[in-house]
Amino acid sequence: MTRAATRVAPVALAVLAAACQPGPKETVQLGFRGTGMEQVFDRDSLARAVAHNILPDSIPPIPATASRAPGNWQNVQVLTDVSQSEFNRTMVAMTQWVAPQQGCNYCHVPGNFASDSIYTKVVARTMLRMVRDVNRDWTGHVGQTGVTCWSCHRGQPVPNNVWFFTDEKQPLRHYLDRQDVRVQSASWAPSDANRSSIKQTEYTYALMLSMSRSLGVNCGFCHNSPRWSSWEQSTPQRVTALRGIRMARALNNDYLLPLQPTFPAQRLGPHGDVPKIQCATCHQGAYKPLYGAKIAQQYPAMYWQHSAGGAVPTNPTAPLDSLQAPVPTAPGAPTLPVPAATPTPGRQTQPPATTPP
Q1: What are 344's strand-pairing partners?
Q2: What percent of the chain clears pLDDT 90, i.e. is strictly above it?
Q3: What contacts 203, CB < 8 A, 6 or more positions away?
Q4: H-helix or E-strand containing 42?
Q5: Which residues on neighbouring strands pair with residue 311, listed in sequence order?
Q6: Widest pairwise Cα distance in the chain
């Protein structure tokens, strides 16, 4: 078997396996006609994904007539720019999003809410900063949909699909400190300029397949398979995905790793490292987390309201979100299967039939 065939074989097997699943399918054209860039959705798999992407109970917004003056709290370090009413509403929402069974005491000392003696409060404060920074600095990935604690936690203290160290060759290390994911080369001959190898190819496909599973899609969701390296022949989702990888890497390094001394031993991995995020942590089988439901916009506290220089713009141009790659010229956003209605707690909705664009 040639090197090219060896590299293509894992993808071909994955596509064939997906196509051979029993049950009804939906096919959506994602790229130019004749390129074979199609997304095959299995309706049973979509139904399972919807079950993991239901929305939390809605908390009524604060009336417009309520006071907007910030509350006078002790040891509040992040939510200093929201009103007292919005602060209390946010605390109720965060409890529901992260620790509905444990309640307020999961983070707070009863009778002394200002205390930082419970480690979960210190972690929650860092995570709240992270959420606000994502909604301000990473709009190239999350758009105006934004994120909240629910995006990852889904009513659990520890989100699903976090990861810990296994070994230095672990594919998920790409979300932290490995940069060598690409294996495209102009020549089959090894050289200093061509570092591609079978081992590196296996690593790359392992990472790409984990991303595909995270979003419930196949390779054609982002790539034109005969032209893997061509940005012009890729879908717009490829740019969004690259920004998402950069975002996950930044969040792991800037927020989660520094929390290692804060976590107790029982919350660390086998090698003593903190839980870290990947695409699946937020997506949970959906190509858009919660199928694009705009929960964050309902909670002003999920956004920075003010800074030393005044109001923070809602969609600033952030250096962290820059991208040195051409924007794909493939067709725009396709019509993809989505729930028939916005999912509500305890009720699973079935995606409707989809007409390819």
Answers
A1: 347
A2: 50
A3: 169, 171, 180, 181
A4: strand 38-42
A5: 306
A6: 72
H helix runs in 182-338, sequence order = 198-215, 236-251, 279-283
Tokens of 97: 């999003």
Domains in the chain with CATH codes = 21-321 (1.10.468.10)
**In whole angstroms, what is the distance from residue 325 CA to residue 213 CA?**
25
Are 141 and 240 contacting, i.e. CB atoms less than 8 angstroms apart? Answer: yes
Q: Which tokens sit at 195? A: 């570092």
The rounded radius of gyration (Å) of the Cα atoms in the chain is 22
Mean pLDDT of the chain: 80
Spatial separation of the C-alpha atoms in residues 25 and 104, rounded to whole Å:
44
**Rounded distance, CA 234 to CA 223, Å?**
5
Which residue's entry shows tokens 């758009």?
143
pLDDT band at 305 (very low <50, low <70, confident <90, very high): confident
Assigned token pair, 130? 């992270």
Q: Which of 268, 261, 277 is nearest to 127 (CA)?
A: 277
The pair of structure tokens assigned to 312 is: 């923070």
CA distances from 338 to 272, 291, 293, 353 (A): 40, 7, 11, 9
